[in-house]
Amino acid sequence: MSMLKTTTTPIALAAILAVPGFAQESGGADVPRTVAELPDRLPETNEREPGPVPDTSAEDIGEIAPDAFVFGVGHRPSQEQIAAIDIDVMPGGAGAPSGSGTYAQGREVYAQYCASCHMEDLSGNTDLGAAALVGGRGTLDTDNPRKTVESYWPHASTLFDYLHRAMPINAPGSLTDEEYYAVSAYILGQGGIVGEDFELNADTFGEIEMPNADGFVSDPRPDAQ
Amino acid sequence: MPKDDRFSLPGYGPAERHMAESLVEIERQILEEPGEDDCDCREGMFPGMTRRGLLASGATIGGAMFAAGYAGADAPPGALEYDVLSDPTSAPGRTILIDGGYGSRSQFENEVRWRYPTASIDSSWSMTPLASGHGIITPSGLHFERHHSGIATIDPRRHSLTVHGMVEEPIRFTMDDLKRLPAVSRMHFIECSGNTLTEWEEPTLKTVQGTHGLTSTSEWTGVPLSTVLEMAGVQDGAAWILAEGADAAVMTRSVPIDKAMDDAILAYAQNGEALRPEQGHPLRLLLPGFEGNMNIKWLRRLEISDRPFMTREETSKYTDLMPDGTARQFTFEMDAKSVITFPSGAMMLPRPGYYEITGIAWSGRGTISRVEVSTDGGKSWQEASLEEPVLPKCHTRFRLPWIWNGEEAVLQSRAVDDTGYVQPTIEELVAVRGTDYVYHLNAIQSWHVAPGGEVTNVHA
Prior knowledge:
The structure holds 2 protein chains of 2 kinds. By secondary structure, chain A is mainly alpha-helical. Chain A has 2 domains: 1-52, no CATH class; 88-207, Cytochrome c-like domain (Cytochrome Bc1 Complex, Chain D, domain 2), CATH 1.10.760.10. In chain A, 27% of the residues lie in helices and 4% in strands. In chain A, helix 4 packs across helix 7 (177-190) and helix 6 crosses helix 7. By secondary structure, chain B is α+β, with helices and mostly antiparallel strands. Chain B folds into 3 domains: 1-110, no CATH class; 118-322, Sulfite Oxidase, Chain A, domain 2 (Alpha-Beta Complex), CATH 3.90.420.10; 337-458, Immunoglobulin-like (Sandwich), CATH 2.60.40.650. Helices cover 15% and strands 27% of the residues of chain B. Chain B has helices at 3-6, 14-32, 51-56, 58-67, 175-179, 208-212, 225-232, 257-262, 426-433, and strands spanning 114-115, 124-127, 145-147, 160-165, 171-174, 184-191, 215-224, 240-245, 252-256, 265-270, 273-274, 284-286, 299-305, 320-321, 327-328, 337-342, 353-362, 368-374, 382-383, 385-386, 396-404, 409-417, 446-449, 455-458. In chain B, helix 2 (14-32) crosses helix 4 (58-67). Classes of the chains: A mainly alpha, B alpha+beta. Chains A and B meet through helix 1, helix 2, helix 3, helix 6 and strand 3 of A and helix 2, helix 4, strand 5, helix 5 and helix 7 of B. Strand 3 of chain A pairs parallel with strand 15 of chain B.
């Protein structure tokens, strides 16, 4: 969407601004706006109004006790509100959504949504900044290390989590959970990490052994002193 | 409608006049659109569009002017072109508030961020022009940028921060809520851990903007993260917090809870005004001294856990490959570093004489206690003066007078922080880390001054 905004033509921009009320609407969070309006003028002196004093979203501010971190500020979100954004998937599959996907299904998803940038053979495209997804095993300690999902990533959950939140780059989050499961299984299968009959779901993350799972060490710095 | 009637005030410069003319032309085109006959917009010129709006849209309108063949409006980004009198005492200057009430820089100042030529423009970075910087504050418009999927545009009225996971009570804050909580203002640098990554094997980029421009300092204002965690009530055993952004990358990093309780800030303001969009407007996490990527922008969610979440940005990226094939993970602190910003790469010293060597030093582990400068490639060192204020996890300005005698010189700076850590040489770093480490290159930078005055990036 931000790209659309920055390429808005002057005509379109002027048209948006010219529609009465659209950019002028004030009100609560439910009213979409595209810009802020200038502060109003005060009567008599014509000064600009200061901004509104922020109000707390707390239904009942209750007893205030700043020393005990009780400010009467904020509100308890509903389970639905949390679930709508609680999308992370942790190692072992904690937090993974329901559904599943197979290597075979993933082949089609990959061809449709991924291959145009990451190439049919998953080798990536440096001209597009699209990373290679497979290959590179055994290269990490050489002069030409190739860091891919296959050779470098320590957790399979990270692959699903990342695809699910950020891919495809032009429409992140636009595939179904099943499609994300399937394409994850396909990439892992292409990397020789799971078999072609593997079905990925919330319960099978723990079965996957990533080749470089033990390749990470904690930070020993300061070093080079 | 005669063009000049509305815009003939003496205070109008060519930029305003051309913008106004462009808008009149756009209005004419809109009014000619079929089906627009009943539109209220015929009533007046752009209802609700003030001169501020007119000027704010200058970049877009500028494009229209260019397309329409208008000349002028060549002022650098962030500036507007006003009439330049040969004698500025001969007539009143431009009218007050003709800028709409939000100032712009001089049309004669032209520093801009420079985008490193990544293949993807969705995931890219731009660098601060350190060579022309003064003092320790980076102008907000020149603060470096690193985005993984573009710059989100978010209405603060529709933004919220949810804190959940291992807490006694999940809590959700509107931006208004956050502004009702006790606030702090702190000056801190943010440095991308990829700063200087082109320089491991050999001198590669030519300017200090290219080699070191992924660090910037601002005054940040917001709510201590510890306050919000106290409000939610962190459960026993909690050790990590997932911070998540509301951009298209839905950027995520795991943050140790000790850092969160120490000096982390939920920042909504930068240098006295709301965050810039490219810095995470309306809300970003600030983790003083930690690598830039962790300072999650467009922050929407904090989930408390007993273990790290192993996101892509702390496994596949932002891990540091060692020669033996292992990789260091969770390398958070930015070690002490300094660089001479003047003279620096691609400059030309016009002739021998007096120059003030100056630069910046910073440490993610504390306060800069000393900066030494060498003009002979590290054979001898002189202590530079540190300009007050010298603050923890903040750029510190250093200066040293220098009389250049016209002979070859190699300028270097070496920072020491209050942990006793001394900024290493590139040889010392490479000896331990090899050259595929990518991140956290904090070595001493060398600028070679040739007898002709040309300054170049060298490894010395």
